Amino acid sequence: MKITRKEKLGNFLFVVPALVLFLVFSLYPILRTFELSVFEWNGIDKHMTFVWFEQYKHILFNNPAFWKSMANAGIITLLALTLQNGLALILALLVTKNIKGENIYRTIFFLPPVLSGIVVGLIWKFVFDGNFGILNHFLVNIGFASFTDFAWLSEIKTALLSVGVVHMWKGFGYGFIILLAGLQTIPVELYEAAEVDGADAWQQFKNITFPLLIPIFTIVTILTILGSMQIFDLIYSMTRGGPAGHTHVPITKIYEYMSNGEFGYSTAMAVIFGMVLLVISGAQIYASKKLNYDR
Amino acid sequence: MNIYKIKRISTSSVIHIILGSVALTCVFPVFWMISSSLKTQDQIFTKMSLLPGSLLDIFNWKWGNYWEAFVKADFGYYFANSLFYTVVGVFFVILISSMAAYAFSRLEFHGKTFLFYLLIATLLIPIPGVFVPLYLLLKNLGLLDTRTGLLLCYISNGLAFAIFLLKGFFDELPREVEEAALIDGCSRFGIYWRIALPLAKPAIATLIIMNSLTIWNEFLLALVVLQDKAKMPIQRGLMVFQGTFITDYPLLMAGLTIATIPIVIVYLLMQKHIVKGIASGALKG
Amino acid sequence: MSKLKTIAALNLCLAFMLCVFSGCQPKEVKPKADVVIWHWMTDRQAAFEKLADDYYEETGVKVLFETYAPTDVYKNKISAAATANLLPDIFNPVGDKKEVASYINADFIADLTEEMDKDNWKDVFFSKALGQNSFEPGNEWNVKPGIYAVPLDVNALMIYYNKDLFKQAGLDPENYPKTWPEFIETGKKLRAANIQPFVSGFGEGWLIGAFAQSYEWNLFGKDGVLKVLEGEIPYTDPRWVRIFRLFEEMKNNKLFASGIVTMVNKDAERSFATGKSAMAFNGSWGVNVYNSMNPELNYGVMPVPSLPEGKFPLLMFGGEGSSLFVNKSSPNRQKAIDFLRWMTQSGPQTFLAKETLNIPSNKNCAADLPPMLKVFSENIKNTFEVLPKIETWQVVNFININLQSVIIGERTPQDAAMEVQSEKERQMKAGK
């Protein structure tokens, strides 16, 4: 089909509102962020000192704590990508299996994302509490007496994992509803035809559900990466980056610098962090495109 | 009983056990929140029981906490404000993003790929960095302390992900119907409005849920951008219970329960549409 | 083309609706007040409003208190408003001295020295109360020496102890430990009786730092503390290693409540209020907090126990509590100052103390305080002295993190001290 210039112009009108808002309220502040990141500035002074890329250099080569925080977020993200999304997929598949009470489950599974961070933080601190916490109570009762006063959130080995578990619990509901929505776009006829051909449940999943869900997986994966790398509230309410800085993540670090009057420096951190996210998400989009074309 | 039936019953009970145990962990905090909202401050910490008191005593539970929370937090007009921000914000996010996503998925125009990736890239810069520039921008536009300013921020915040999600869905929708409609003389806009949009219902329902949740719970931006109490959202009301030194837990929990209900309702309303997609036969025949 | 028109119309429609939204709200109603105050003390809002009403009746000047909480959000709001030059008449930048200095140097904060001298206003305050808000000659930020804020209340950090739990462990509840070895002994006895001995919000860096600093004053004295700040005495000095060892000693004798290194103070307060821990290092606001969580709690207050080898008096964190600063460029500056002057007189201060259970900054009101608060107010004289210099936040951070690190057994006191010292050297190099 030939497309005239006028048509192209007409097509462009579809994106104009999004574009205008986006340019003014997203791109412009981001560009300003870039600008601020080459200044040394405490956020208050009328005077800013232009320092070229000194702050970038410092972050890249002299700030191991920031990179450690990046690694922490990376671990939480990996956990979320595998376990959280795996759980979301299994639940989404099970719930569409025409079982009784399907609607009740669907409602309940979205409760964690709906709940306020305050409640979630409080509850899980009760669970992990070293002193009469619910988890320890349970462990001691089934025979692990050594857990009587084990403080999950204060031990180097378990702090990050514990926060990771809560993060996954709070987040799986998102993946769940997106996958659920995705499952609905697969025409029923395909399954009916497969059934006639005698395909079992696994074959149906492998040959119909999975390939057709790839684009949705991409979305869920990106959402998970962004949500997990930018984790903040939970860390702040559960550990404040402790014990001894072992659960710091990039946003808590950026926040720490910003609230200590290192405005320019913290924006440079934000930019570097943004770049890292860009590369990860870019790679992810590329990979799934490739997978999509190959099938 | 035949083997087939036994197999079916056992499979379904396995499924129920899996779903049930996950569901239990999700319900527990809600239960705790509501139960705490019916206790007194010292009961919350000294009595760790799950119920606020014996069931026989149900009329003596602190039901008054709800009324007190509602009054103390000025929930009345904060509630109305939040409702306004959420409804208007979500409406525009969906309208604007679905138009753009449709164009990105189906239409030809200059700079399409570039614009799309630029849009996606904004998902990635963390908020703490853009906070002050955004504030200065609103000031320069004269939008500080206005509902419009706050709404515009909310809307543009939601766009990138919404476009990304919707484009993914549009890409997967079969094009045959649209092409037929085009031949029948339907305009591009007509196709978007009458065909593509209804088909994307599950995705739109999902987006409504997610964006409502974000806007309803947003707090930081609202507090910084707005000065006038009369424009503040519901989260401002909850703040009253979290003192610098003292947190009034029962009232906070009562307030949180009140503030959670609308979102649960939105979810209940929307999740029905997540099923009524293509699967129910929109494309059949 | 109809399609073009439809879309163009839709865009117009969008633009129009957005305009409507801006139109449908009441036209910029500036708060009808003479003096606007932004603060973060949600729990005092009711009392503040009552005072504002009284003031209005007395003088006809309308004062408006606006709360923004939690403190982080408040701080964000203040700094954003400062950047856009939209600060209210009265506020507080909530930060350390360096941050306060940057607000002063950027002309956001009025110099109150002259006002404070008028009618000897400054004499009504505990002298320590002005600490955070006054700058000495030769301060490192080049701020003109003077007083820059009005303190509303004062606080001090001490150790609360649960008398019932002390009895349960066979300890004399009226005879609390006064020296470090006694403190450790007490802790051991409590632990032996299956009671968690010590709790505090050590997950919030500043509390763990404040505890350590008490011993810095104890071991180094004012000159020594200053020399550490100047970098003339390194953190690897045996006395600082000793401070790190104190935490190790507490850990080895199982004094710490489970999970103390990630505990925020609100959780620590809960632990003490519910009788799960026998001693709590906490501020004077705790009196109010414990009262609300568990009115039955039977407790006493003791100073931080000093070291036998400490050559100098052990001082405690405290002095200035919450203060308010006046906007230098506010057209209502004088009205704002007059209100603050009124607010710190005996009447309003006594009212505030009674309503909010804080120690008033006006020392003349201390006599009427409830007994527990009185102990704190008497302890104000033993709080840290004001210094012309502070440690960079990075080093402070390193100290706090390394203290935590010692508690979880990740580093030895020696290693921790070395870590802090190397950060100190990095910061000194960067500062030059």
Shape of chain A: flat
The helix/strand order of chain C is HEHEHEHHEEEEHHEHHHEHEEEHHEHHH
Element-level helix/strand string of chain A: HHEEHHHHHHHHHHHH
Strand order of the largest sheet of chain A: 1-2
Indicate the proportion of strand residues of chain A.
Answer: under 5%
Characterization of the model:
The complex is a heterotrimer of chains A (295), B (285) and C (432). Chain A is mainly alpha-helical and 295 residues long. Chain A has a domain at 57-116 and 152-294: MetI-like (MetI-like fold, Orthogonal Bundle). Chain A contains 14 helices and two strands. The two termini of chain A are 27 Å apart. The mean pLDDT of chain A is 87. Mean pLDDT of chain B is 83; it is low at 276-285. By secondary structure, chain B is an all-alpha fold. Helices cover 73% and strands 0% of the residues of chain B. Chain B is flat, with a radius of gyration of 24 Å. Chain B folds into two domains: 3-67, no CATH class; 68-280, MetI-like (MetI-like fold, Orthogonal Bundle). Chain B has helices spanning 3-37, 41-46, 64-72, 75-106, 112-121, 127-140, 147-172, 176-183, 188-199, 201-217, 220-225, 234-239, 249-275. With 432 residues, chain C is an alpha+beta fold. Chain C folds into two domains: 35-152 and 321-344, Periplasmic binding protein-like II (D-Maltodextrin-Binding Protein, domain 2, 3-Layer(aba) Sandwich), CATH 3.40.190; 156-318 and 389-431, D-Maltodextrin-Binding Protein, domain 2. Helices cover 48% and strands 12% of the residues of chain C. Chain C has 16 helices and 13 strands. In chain C, strands 7, 8, 9, 10, 11 and 13 form a six-stranded mixed beta sheet that branches. At the A-B interface, helix 1, helix 2, helix 4, helix 5 and helix 6 of A face helix 1, helix 4, helix 5, helix 6 and helix 7 of B.
